[in-house]
Amino acid sequence: MSSVPVKERVKVSQNWRLGRCREGILLKWRCRRVVSGQMPWMQLEDDSLYISQANFILAYQFRPDGASLNRRPLGVFAGHDEDVCHFVLASSHIISAGGDGKIGVHKIHSTFAVKYSAHEQEVNCVDCKGGIIVSGSRDRTAKVWPLASGRLGQCLHTIQTEDRVWSIAISPLLSSFVTGTACCGHFSPLRIWDLNSGKLMTHLGSDFPPGAGVLDVKYESPSTLLSCGYDTYVRYWDLRTSVRKCVMEWEEPHDSTLYCLQTDGNHLLATGSSYYGVVRLWDRRQKACLHAFPLTSTPLSSPVYCLRFTTTHLYAALSYNLHVLDFKNP
């Protein structure tokens, strides 16, 4: 926020610390996603928001206030036969994972789009860095693919994970990647694989109960990452100290599954829960949650499937609409 006056920075900082914000709805889906079972995903880039709706990805431009969108989409990216489960932005491309078992590659500023069969069942997660794509599927495999246009669809490695893969992330060093699995067929839901050979390097943690699947995982640095999932914990791992025990953990106080997490790389951590659209803010120096924002109520209870934040706004995608929490103008 170097371009923002110091007085304004202090004001916004205090609003986050005290939980002062104004809630609004940016988008409403045409159909009740909570009924149809669709799960939106989103990404932010500069002044644009990308969000999946059914089998499309739409790009919207923020208005200057950051708390509203221009109604007409900047772009619509199509190609999947079923819902988009997940997508990432990488190297001016959108890499999408679909319920049709396919991966889509779209150029953001052109009409170029390629879709290829990747897995036997839905592709739950995808990541892309350094010209490499990794994908994870319900079919209990993770795969590595090149992004180069002449080699799209050529699988480099197929990894048998013995479990559904719910989340995946490539290390910033581009030497390995982590998979978050269902913890049903294999004792460890978090495993790290060599990106060049596809071989298992290590697994994280121990004594996970069956079903403690990992729904979201994020690297903060080459040696540190965060994970969350069905067992209601956020865990912070530092590979320099131990791969068997996390450095810190935070428990969701109402025993709700944690669908997603986001961090500013410093002290702020935000999580999305499975009931009543609850977004929680955490100070990583404390055990207890700082603030909770329930965005829905009975009978419209929905998980927070994806959340993102900037220095002034937090965006949360639920089953039937997209919410914004405005910490600049509470």
UniProtKB/TrEMBL annotation:
Pfam families, per the entry: WD40 (PF00400)
InterPro entries: SCF_F-box/WD-repeat, WD40/YVTN_repeat-like_dom_sf, WD40_repeat_dom_sf, WD40_rpt
PANTHER family: DACTYLIN (PTHR14381), F-BOX_WD REPEAT-CONTAINING PROTEIN 4 (PTHR14381:SF1)
WD repeats, residue ranges: 116-151
Keywords linked to the UniProt accession: WD repeat
Gene3D superfamilies, per the entry: YVTN repeat-like/Quinoprotein amine dehydrogenase
Gene Ontology cellular component terms for the protein in this record: SCF ubiquitin ligase complex
Name used for this protein in its record: F-box/WD repeat-containing protein 4
